Every structure is written in structure tokens, then in C-alpha cells.
């Protein structure tokens, strides 16, 4: 059934509302209370206080469609058919209310009756020791045993350190041999694009203590996560999450901007831009501003990475700010904050992007020169000083330099780079420059109306080191 992404989102929330869930709109991408997390990366992340019992939920069953950012997946964008840095996660949650049986039952009902997926294409994975889940899938649901795959701890057991944890069960969709790999036994868990993991059901039933003992929780929880874009790609029968209805409009606009027909080797860059412009639009909409650390650095990196891929397509002017309008057009109805802050978002992207456009060409030339020199000398590591120059004078975030170098098997002396950074920080401190202008001769955001700039300091005043 060809359902649009917006339609799937609404159908999901309605389905669980009818199952008596409290529907909560997406929390911001910036964790409101959780200092351990840079950006919300799953539907359950903002609900942690309800799971741990430190806060009372509005109801003991909830459902959300949560905006997520996963920088861990940045290298996969455009390389696999199913990873983005920004995506929406649909989820239903039980805080000590219903458990495994209902979670499995309802996922099946939603998949077959609302999404109308052909039954024969749906598979499930379970944690290898979770016989209870096996029995539910097999005896209760009637799924054939060949289509219930037992996977190990890395894939199907959810835990972070100590505390609540438990086995998972994932739903997979078989897209057919055409999407597959060489392996005749290819099945869920394989890394190719044939079996798409689209829904993860986490059964939080244990508590893990310091000694590594697992004890049963008195009232177990349910936490599920379904990737909206992945479901849409399955439903719309398109190759990747970049070609679903909502993404395609951005994708096509990128092609229109580059003024020449799409070439095959350009597809990764187009996908990167399609993803990153969405990420930066939503991030700025949630109050993040570009900076050199923490989430502001993640934003800056995504924005400049997007600009670089634009350049690879031959786009030599600021274009992300215009693409942003398309993002707001598509998502503005379901995420009204984007419409409300559209002018502000445009302004932030514009200054950041225009400033980078001034130097990116020169920076690329210099980097190419460095690479040539390394090649001539038969060396593999760019000096920290050179990487720092690219950063300081041309606005190349270290990760961008690293990535461009990695494409040719070079790296950077990161320690020396960090030392150069530290030296500059100290200099800035001693000259009483409080504003974070590192990375630029002057802060590109200076031209933004200060009233706008300080609007969201509540979110951005945390000092954290970005690990991206
Ligand atoms: P994968 O193994 O494909 O990387 P995951 O196991 O890391 O996915 P989960 O942490 O289980 O993903 O997240 C729940 C769901 O969110 C996944 O089943 C998938 O549908 C979706 N999802 C996860 N990562 C991404 C991503 N980078 N882009 C789009 N959707 C994602
Ligand atoms: Mg993953
Ligand atoms: Mg997985
Ligand atoms: Mg998973």
C-alpha cells in the first residue's frame, strides 16, 4: 500500500491512541534534562525519567513520533539505503503496564492491518535465549519458525552499563533477492539491504547490577522504535529512504539546483545533502546554533559537510538556505515550530553558509596541495598545524578534513591539532575574547540580530565536548 510518510506517522499515532495510549508530540532534539546525551537519538531517550520511575508519566502507556539525530550513522548516509543522521522514530511505550504479549500482538496488527504489508514478507528476530518471545511469535501469532531468527547480544539485547535492560525483538521486511547479497542464506541480521530492520521492540525486564547479575524487574517496561522513513520506503517500494515522498522533493530540488541531469556517481552527495539539510533545519528549529563545541559543533559540521557535497555537485553558491524552505513546506504542518521559526532558521543557515562559501574553494585547493605534498613525500599523516590552518582560516571542521583525507587513505595528527586548538583557546581567553570565535577570524553569527541569537540560550548554554 503506497502510504505517504506523513500519513504513516498519523496512522501510527491514531492506532495507539485507540489502544489507550497518551499521544505526546515529539520532544525537542535537545535533551531537556539529560546531561549524558548530546542529542536525542531514540524515542525512548526523552522518556528515561518515566522508565526509571523518577517522574510520573501522564499515563502508563504513551506513543510518540520522535525527531532523532544519530551522528554515529553519518558515514552510512548515502552508502546504505536505510541510514540517515536525521530521522523520525515512531514508538509505543509501556511504563510497567502491558508487556511482551501486547507489544508483539499490536506490532503485528499494525503491520498487517494498517500498513497492510504482505504477510509473507515479514520476519522477526528475537534474542537467542528469549523463548518466551519465540513462543509468542510462533504459537500466538502463528509466524513460521523459519522466519523467527535468533540473534546474539550485540543485535538483540538492549543494555547500557548497569540498570534496566532486556532482550529485543525486531521486525524485518524482506525486500527480495534483488536487494540482496551473494549469500544464499541471507536473512535478518545480514548487513545488506534485502532484509530491512524497521521496528525494534525492547522488553525491559531485567535489572543489571554492578556484578553483572540480572534480576527480574517487578514491573517490566516496553520501549519500541520504528523508523518512519524505512517503513515509508517499504510501503512506497522505493530503493532507499532518500527516495520516499517527503525526501524525494528535497532530492529533486537538489538536482534542479545543480542545473544538469543527475549522474550516477553523484547520488551519494545528493543523499547527503537531502539528509543534512533536514537535520540542520530541525536542529536550528530546536534552538541549536552553530558553534565549535557540543551540539553546536554537530550542527556546524553537518552544515559545512552539506555545503561541501554541494560543491562536489558543482553548486557554487549558498543553496542550503533555499532547500530549507522545502523542508519547512514538507514538515511544517506536523512540526509547526519549523514554520514559526522559519525566518530565524533561514538567517542562521544563511550566515553560516555564506561565510563558509567564501573560503571553502580556497580551503579545498589548499587541502589538495597538502595531499599532493604528502603523496610526494610518501607520507600518510597531515600535520596538526596544517589541519589547524584549514580549521582556523578556512572553517574546515576537523571531522570534515579527516573525512576528505580518509577518502584518499590519509589521516591527521589529531593530537597536534588538539594542542593547536588549546593554544588558541588560551590566547583567546587571555585577550578576554569571551565569544566563541575560534575557527574563524570573526564569528559568522555576529551579523545575526542579537535578539534572535539569545532566544534559545537556555538550550545551548551547556558546555559539552562533542563526540561525533
Ligand atoms: P540498524 O541496525 O539498521 O543500524 P539500529 O538497530 O541501530 O538499526 P535501533 O536502535 O533499533 O536501530 O532503532 C529503532 C529503529 O529506528 C530501527 O529499527 C530503524 O527502523 C530506525 N533507525 C535506526 N537508525 C536509523 C537511521 N540512522 N536512519 C533511519 N532510521 C533509523
Ligand atoms: Mg544502527
Ligand atoms: Mg540493528
Ligand atoms: Mg535495532
From TrEMBL:
Residues 3-468 form the Alanyl-transfer RNA synthetases family profile domain. It is found in: Cytoplasm. Binds 1 zinc ion per subunit. Residues 427-436 have a biased composition (Polar residues). Its EC number is 6.1.1.7. One of its GO terms (molecular function) is transferase activity. Its cofactor is Zn(2+). Keywords: Aminoacyl-tRNA synthetase, ATP-binding, Coiled coil, Cytoplasm, Ligase, Metal-binding, Nucleotide-binding, Protein biosynthesis, RNA-binding, tRNA-binding, Zinc. GO terms for cellular component: cytosol. Signal peptide: none annotated. Its main location: cytoplasm. It catalyses: tRNA(Ala) + L-alanine + ATP = L-alanyl-tRNA(Ala) + AMP + diphosphate. It comes from the Bacteria. The keyword Cytoplasm applies. Residues 426-445 are annotated as: Disordered. GO terms for biological process: alanyl-tRNA aminoacylation. It is an enzyme of class 6 (ligase). Catalyzes the attachment of alanine to tRNA(Ala) in a two-step reaction: alanine is first activated by ATP to form Ala-AMP and then transferred to the acceptor end of tRNA(Ala). Also edits incorrectly charged Ser-tRNA(Ala) and Gly-tRNA(Ala) via its editing domain. Belongs to the class-II aminoacyl-tRNA synthetase family. Consists of three domains; the N-terminal catalytic domain, the editing domain and the C-terminal C-Ala domain. The editing domain removes incorrectly charged amino acids, while the C-Ala domain, along with tRNA(Ala), serves as a bridge to cooperatively bring together the editing and aminoacylation centers thus stimulating deacylation of misacylated tRNAs. This is Alanine--tRNA ligase. It comes from Isachenkonia alkalipeptolytica. The chain holds residues 2 to 469 of 876 of the full protein.
Amino acid at each position: 500500500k503506497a502510504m505517504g510518510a506523513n500519513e504513516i506517522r498519523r496512522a501510527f499515532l491514531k492506532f495507539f491512541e485507540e489502544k489507550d495510549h497518551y499521544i505526546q508530540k515529539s520532544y525537542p532534539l535537545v535533551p531537556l534534562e539529560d546531561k549524558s546525551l548530546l542529542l536525542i537519538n531514540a524515542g525512548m531517550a526523552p522518556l528515561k525519567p518515566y522508565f526509571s520511575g523518577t517522574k510520573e508519566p501522564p499515563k502508563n502507556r504513551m506513543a510518540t513520533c520522535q525527531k532523532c539525530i544519530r551522528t554515529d550513522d553519518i558515514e552510512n548516509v548515502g552508502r546504505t539505503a536505510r541510514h540517515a543522521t536525521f530521522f523520525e522514530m515512531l514508538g509505543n511505550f509501556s511504563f510497567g503496564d502491558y508487556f511482551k504479549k501486547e507489544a508483539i500482538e499490536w506490532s503485528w496488527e499494525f503491520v498487517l492491518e494498517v500498513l497492510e504489508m504482505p504477510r509473507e514478507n515479514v520476519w522477526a528476530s528475537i534474542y537467542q535465549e528469549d523463548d518466551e518471545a519465540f513462543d509468542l511469535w510462533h504459537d500466538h501469532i502463528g509466524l513460521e519458525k523459519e522466519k523467527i531468527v535468533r540473534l546474539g547480544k550485540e543485535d538483540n539485547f538492549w543494555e547500557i552499563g548497569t540498570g534496566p535492560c532486556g532482550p529485543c525483538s525486531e521486525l524485518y521486511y524482506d525486500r527480495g533477492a534483488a536487494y540482496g547479497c551473494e549469500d544464499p542464506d541471507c536473512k535478518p541480521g545480514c548487513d545488506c539491504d534485502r532484509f530491512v530492520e524497521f521496528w525494534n521492540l525492547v522488553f525491559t525486564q531485567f535489572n543489571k547490577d554492578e556484578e553483572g547479575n540480572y534480576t527480574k524487574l517487578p514491573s517490566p517496561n516496553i520501549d519500541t522504535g520504528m523508523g518512519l522513513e524505512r517503513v515509508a520506503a517499504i510501503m512506497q517500494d522505493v530503493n532507499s529512504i532518500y527516495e520516499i515522498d517527503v525526501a524525494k522533493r528535497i532530492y529533486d530540488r537538489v538536482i534542479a539546483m545543480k542545473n544538469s541531469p543527475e549522474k550516477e556517481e553523484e547520488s551519494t552527495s545528493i543523499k547527503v545533502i537531502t539528509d543534512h539539510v533536514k537535520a540542520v533545519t530541525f536542529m536550528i528549529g530546536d534552538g541549536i546554533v552553530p558553534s565549535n563545541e557540543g551540539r553546536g559543533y554537530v550542527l556546524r559540521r553537518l552544515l559545512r559537510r552539506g555545503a561541501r557535497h554541494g560543491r562536489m555537485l558543482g553548486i557554487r553558491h549558498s543553496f542550503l538556505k533555499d532547500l530549507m524552505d522545502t523542508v519547512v513546506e514538507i514538515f511544517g504542518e506536523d512540526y509547526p515550530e519549523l514554520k514559526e521559526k522559519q525566518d530565524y532558521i533561514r538567517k542562521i543557515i544563511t550566515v553560516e553558509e555564506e561565510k563558509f562559501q567564501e573560503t571553502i574553494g580556497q580551503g579545498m585547493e589548499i587541502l589538495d596541495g597538502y595531499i599532493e605534498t604528502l603523496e610526494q613525500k610518501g607520507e600518510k599523516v597531515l600535520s596538526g598545524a596544517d589541519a589547524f590552518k584549514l580549521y582556523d582560516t578556512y572553517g574546515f571542521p576537523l571531522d570534515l578534513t579527516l573525512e576528505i583525507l580518509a577518502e584518499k587513505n590519509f589521516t591527521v595528527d589529531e593530537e597536534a591539532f588538539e594542542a593547536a586548538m588549546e593554544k588558541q583557546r588560551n590566547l583567546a581567553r587571555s585577550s578576554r575574547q569571551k565569544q566563541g570565535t575560534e575557527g574563524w577570524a570573526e564569528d559568522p553569527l555576529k551579523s545575526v540580530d542579537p535578539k534572535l541569537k539569545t532566544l534559545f540560550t537556555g538550550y545551548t548554554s551547556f558546555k559539552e565536548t562533542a563526540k561525533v
